Amino acid sequence: xxxxxxxxxxxxxxxxxxxxxxxxxxxxxxxxxxxxxxxxxxxxxxxxxxxxxxxxxxxxxxxxxxxxxxxxxxxxxxxxxxxxxxxxxxxxxxxxxxxxxxxxxxxxxxxxxxxxxxxxxxxxxxxxxxxxxxxxxxxxxxxxxxxxxxxxxxxxxxxxxxxxxxxxxxxxxxxxxxxxxxxxxxxxxxxxxxxxxxxxxxxxx
Length: 205
What we know:
Blueprint: H1 9-18, H2 26-39, H3 50-69, H4 78-106, H5 113-120, H6 129-144, H7 149-159, H8 165-172, H9 176-195
């Protein structure tokens, strides 16, 4: 964030809550559209119809983008706009993970509706913002490098779930040597990005 004078965040949030139909700045609208378009690539949760899921993503992205905007200056820098984008997309990603888990665990039983709602609102299952942010950066890098689903899964099991190479090999029914080579390749890709100036993933050094 830059050092320019800021509008008091509470004032902006109060404005949004009191006037839900307020016109957002065009650059925020563009970010919201970009987030909605990006997240349309994700598999829709089975217990959501297409129209509902579209509106859900748009609403989540809008609120998260506005909250991030509250922390920006009057004339946001490119870095601040990027921050708003990542905050909005992280918010949708968090809710997406909740919906997927909700559908997987409870959708088959209507009598568990109240338990479903409680599970959806359980913050204990939510990743930290830093973890989410890193996950999104990693996802973007793998997209740019056209990494296969196997590479992504091996890295996910190792980095996010903390599994050993042997555990990953057993789960994916491949050799431990293959897991080691795939993981080494994924780390090489990410470390190269670090060497090009993205220090967000410094934990991979």
